[in-house]
Amino acid sequence: MAEKVLLIDDEVEFLEALSERMEIRGMDVTTAENASAAVSAINSGDFDAIVLDLQMPDMNGIDMLKIIRKTNPDMQVILLTGQATLEAGIQAMKLGAMDFMEKPADIDALTDKIKKAQAKKMVIVEKKTEKKVNDILKSKGW
Question: Domains plus CATH for the chain?
């Protein structure tokens, strides 16, 4: 099953190049060049992972991560940045980011992290489904 990925980055050339490289690896990639396009994509799509740029002109990655966490607390987010700081990395991890990588990201390492994100999401969905089934069984007395 192809990994569904949302790439969010304001650098259009980088976004296109990374998207192509991920699609060659069999991933289903959606891109967003700004915060409003990203929010729209998040609200209308179901992704296994979001790869998010830390520095964007209209909203930084930390603020976008907070929005994602409010609306999709189980979403797996990998932050990418060309200007990594220890402080930003720690803040992102505290907010629930799955990982934090520096640009230019090694495509094999990023692909591996996206596959792990998909597996983690599948475990979360399975646990939620199992809980729902158990709750229904208890409430019906079966």
Answer: 4-140 (3.40.50.2300)
Residue 76 near residue 50 (C-beta atoms within 8 A): yes
> What's the pTM value of the predicted model, to 2 decimals?
0.88
CA distances from 4 to 33, 60, 82, 94, 138 (A): 17, 23, 24, 24, 34
The model's confidence at residue 92, banded by pLDDT at 50, 70 and 90, is confident
Using CA atoms, how far apart are residues 96 and 65, in angstroms rounded to an integer? 8
Kindly list the distances between the CA atom of residue 98 and the CA atoms of 10, 84, 115, 118, in Å, as whole numbers in the listed order: 21, 16, 12, 11
Q: Which residues pair with 8 in a beta bridge?
A: 32, 52
Residue 88: per-residue pLDDT: 82
Largest CA distance in the chain: 58
